[in-house]
Write a structure and sequence with these properties.
Rossmann fold; 33% helix; alpha/beta; three-stranded mixed beta sheet; globular; 604 residues; 19 helices; single chain; 14 strands
C-alpha cells in the first residue's frame, strides 16, 4: 500500500459540532487523492485510511483498519466492560492493519516490535466503504473462533464490497481476556459481549461518516460469533432493536451447551493454577493473580486448561472462553434458552440462518484426539455402545437421563452398526450426530422460533457446495485422520472473504459460488429477501422443517430440514478418503505437537 496524504476541508463551526449530518459528512470526508481518504468523526477526531480493490471488478474500496472504539482494557480495566475511546488530537493513521486480540500460537510468531506492543489494546473495528457521501446498507460481521481465536484481518472486504454496502468488522477480546469470570465486579465475565455491544453502538453513532445508513444495519455472524450475537437477543440488558435490523446467523446459535461456562469460578481457579498460581490461594488471591500476570502467561494457563478439559471432561466443561450467566452486570440472569421459553424474544427481526452440510466433521478431529489421548482408538475389547458414551462425554452430550443416547440410537447408531464394533464404520454416524447435537438442532430451533413471528422473513438454508478449497484442519496437517471434512464448518467463509491467502485464488466454479453467496447475503441485507440471478425463489420458512434452500451449483428448494441430520450417513463417501473405507483402524494417536497446533486453530 502506498501512503498519499489526503486533504480535508473544515469550517470552525463544523469542527465544533458533534451532531452527525449530511453536510458535515461531505465536508469532513475527502477522497481527492483517491488513495488515502480522510474522515472526521464528530466528537472524536480525524482518520486517515487507505484503499484496496474489489476482487472481480477492481472497484476501489476505501478501508479504515483497526479503528480503536474502546480504550485499552489493561491494568485495572482488564476483564471489565470496555470504556469508549477518548478523543484524539491530529490525524490518526488507520491505513495499515494492526494486531488483533492476542492468541497464544500467533504470539509465538510475533516480531520483537510486536511483542513490545500493548496486547490489550485490541478493541477496534475495520470499516470498508466505496462512497463516503452515500447512505448505504451496513453489514457488521462478528467473527467466530470458539471464542478464543480469529481476527478482524481474517475477513477482508474484496468479495462483499463488490456490492453497494458498507462492511464493518469489529475486533473484540478473545479467550480469557474476553470471557473469564469469577462472577464478581473484579472479573465479571462476558467482557467480549460488552465489546460487541459497544461496537454496534459505535456503528450507530459514526457509520454515517463512512457512507452507511444506521437505520439499515444487518449483523452477520458465524460459529461462536453467531452464538454471541443470538444470545444478545435474549439479554434484558441489551436492546438489539436499537443496534441492528436484520440478522444472518451461520452455523451456530446460543442454544448450545458449548456456548457457556457452566462452572466459571472453578474454571477461573483452574486457569490460574495452570498459569502458576499458588494452589492454596484464596478467591481474592486468584483474582489478583489473574489481574496482574502478563498476557502470554495468562493465555498459556488457559491453553493448558482447555486441552485438559477437552480431553478429560468434555467440551462443555471448558472455561475462560464461554458466555457466563449470573454475572454482576446481568447480561444473562438466566440461560437464553430459558428466557426464550418464557417468551422473552424479539419478534420483528428478519433472519437468514443455516448450516453447512457436514457441520460435524470438525468435531471428529476433537473426538479422535481425545480418544487417542486415552488409548481408545485401537481398543477392540471396548463395546461400541460404551465407546459411544465416551464420545458423548467429549462432545458435552453425556446425558444422565439417557434421552440423548436413546435418540441417537434411533437416528444414528442402530443395532447393526454397533454390533460390528468398528470405529471406522461409525464415522459417518459420529459426524452426523455431532452436527445435529452441536449445531444443526439448535439452529433449526432458532429458525422455527423466528418463523413464528416473521413467517415471511425467515430464510433457512443448508450450504452443500464442495469446492476446490477447504478449511478442514485450519491449515494444519490432518492426513493422519481417516476422514475428510466434506462441506466443512466455516467453508462458507471461503466464498464470502478471500482468506486464507492460499484459498483466495478461486477456480471458475468456486468464483461463481462466491458471487452467488455474496449476492444472496447482500441482497438480504439490502432488500430483506435473499436472491441471485438464475436461482429459484428462496421461500421463507413457513413450516416446522422448511422450506429451505440447498445452496449448491444447482440450488434447490427442499421441504424437510430434518433430512440434514443424517446427510453424511446417506452419503458416506462425502467424508471418506476412499469410497471403500478401511475396515481396520490403523490411525495412530496424534503427536502432542499436532494436538497443540490443531487446538489453536479450532474453528476460525
Amino acid at each position: 500500500m502506498t501512503t498519499i496524504c489526503g486533504t480535508i476541508f473544515k469550517s470552525e463551526v463544523l469542527r465544533k459540532s458533534i451532531a452527525p449530518n449530511r453536510i458535515a459528512v461531505r465536508l469532513f470526508s475527502s477522497v481527492e487523492n483517491h488513495d488515502h481518504p480522510i474522515v472526521e468523526l464528530p466528537g472524536l477526531g480525524t482518520l486517515k485510511g487507505s484503499s484496496t480493490r474489489g476482487a472481480w471488478t477492481g472497484s476501489k474500496i476505501y478501508q479504515f483498519l483497526n479503528i480503536r472504539y474502546a480504550e485499552p482494557a489493561d491494568g485495572k480495566k482488564r476483564f471489565k466492560p470496555p470504556i469508549p475511546v477518548k478523543p484524539w488530537e491530529g490525524v490518526l493513521d488507520v491505513s495499515m492493519p494492526k494486531l488483533g486480540s492476542p492468541v497464544l500460537m500467533d504470539m509465538k510468531k510475533y516480531t520483537p516490535d510486536q511483542l513490545a506492543q500493548n496486547h490489550e489494546d485490541c478493541i477496534n473495528v475495520c470499516v470498508y466503504t466505496k462512497n463516503l457521501n452515500a447512505k448505504k446498507p451496513v453489514i457488521v460481521y462478528i467473527h467466530g473462533g470458539m471464542f478464543f481465536t480469529g481476527a478482524a484481518s481474517h475477513f477482508p472486504p474484496n468479495y462483499i464490497m463488490e456490492k453497494d454496502v458498507v462492511l464493518v468488522v469489529p475486533q473484540y477480546r478473545l479467550g480469557p481476556l474476553g470471557f473469564i469470570s469469577t462472577r464478581t465486579e473484579n472479573i465479571p465475565g462476558n467482557a467480549a459481549i460488552h465489546d460487541v455491544k459497544l461496537a454496534l453502538e459505535w456503528v450507530q453513532k459514526h457509520i454515517t461518516q463512512f457512507g452507511g445508513d444506521p437505520n439499515q444495519v444487518t449483523v452477520m455472524a458465524q460459529s461462536s460469533g453467531a452464538s454471541m450475537v443470538s444470545s444478545m437477543l435474549y439479554s434484558p440488558a441489551i436492546d438489539t432493536e436499537k443496534l441492528f435490523h436484520k440478522l444472518i446467523l451461520q452455523s451456530a446459535v446460543c442454544f448450545t451447551n458449548w456456548s457457556y461456562d457452566h462452572n466459571p469460578v472453578e474454571n477461573a481457579r483452574r486457569i490460574a493454577l495452570a498459569a502458576g498460581c499458588e494452589p492454596k490461594a484464596s478467591n481474592e488471591e486468584i483474582e489478583q493473580f489473574l489481574m496482574e500476570i502478563d498476557v502470554p502467561r495468562l493465555l498459556s494457563g488457559f491453553t493448558k486448561h482447555y486441552r485438559y478439559q477437552m480431553n478429560n471432561e468434555g467440551v462443555n466443561q471448558i472455561g475462560g472462553c464461554r458466555l457466563v450467566t449470573g454475572c454482576p452486570h446481568q447480561l444473562y440472569p438466566e440461560l437464553p434458552y430459558h428466557a426464550m421459553r418464557k417468551g422473552k424474544v424479539r419478534k420483528n427481526l428478519p433472519m437468514l440462518i443455516g448450516t453447512m452440510q457436514q457441520e460435524g466433521s470438525f468435531a471428529l478431529l476433537d473426538i479422535f484426539i481425545a480418544l487417542g489421548s486415552k488409548n481408545l482408538l485401537q481398543q477392540k475389547s471396548l463395546p461400541s455402545h460404551m465407546l459411544l458414551d465416551e464420545i458423548n462425554r467429549i462432545m458435552g452430550m453425556d446425558d444422565p437421563s439417557c434421552v440423548t443416547r436413546t435418540l441417537q440410537s434411533l437416528l444414528f447408531y442402530n443395532q447393526k452398526l454397533l454390533r460390528q464394533n468398528n470405529l471406522m464404520k461409525m464415522i459417518p454416524a459420529m459426524a452426523d450426530s455431532a452436527a445435529a447435537c452441536l449445531v444443526k438442532g439448535s439452529v433449526l430451533k432458532q429458525a422455527q422460533l423466528n418463523s413464528v413471528y416473521q413467517p415471511n422473513s425467515t430464510f433457512l438454508y443448508s450450504f452443500d457446495y464442495a469446492g476446490q478449497h477447504t478449511r478442514f484442519g485450519y491449515g494444519f496437517d490432518v492426513s493422519q485422520f481417516p476422514f475428510t471434512g466434506g462441506v466443512h464448518h466455516t467453508n462458507d467463509l471461503l466464498y464470502l472473504f478471500p482468506y486464507p491467502a492460499e484459498a483466495s485464488q478461486l477456480n471458475e466454479a468456486d468464483s461463481q459460488m462466491a458471487k452467488r453467496t455474496v449476492d444472496l447475503w447482500t441482497s438480504f441485507a439490502i432488500e430483506g429477501v435473499p436472491s441471485a440471478e438464475g436461482l429459484p425463489v428462496w421461500p421463507s420458512m413457513r413450516d416446522a422443517y422448511g422450506p429451505y434452500l440447498k445452496i449448491n451449483q444447482n440450488c434447490t428448494v427442499a421441504e424437510n430440514y430434518a433430512q440434514e441430520f443424517t446427510v453424511t450417513m446417506q452419503d458416506p463417501a462425502s467424508i471418506a478418503k476412499s469410497v471403500e473405507q478401511r475396515s481396520e483402524l490403523d490411525v495412530q494417536t496424534p503427536p502432542v505437537r499436532d494436538k497443540q497446533q490443531y487446538r489453536k486453530a479450532v474453528v476460525q
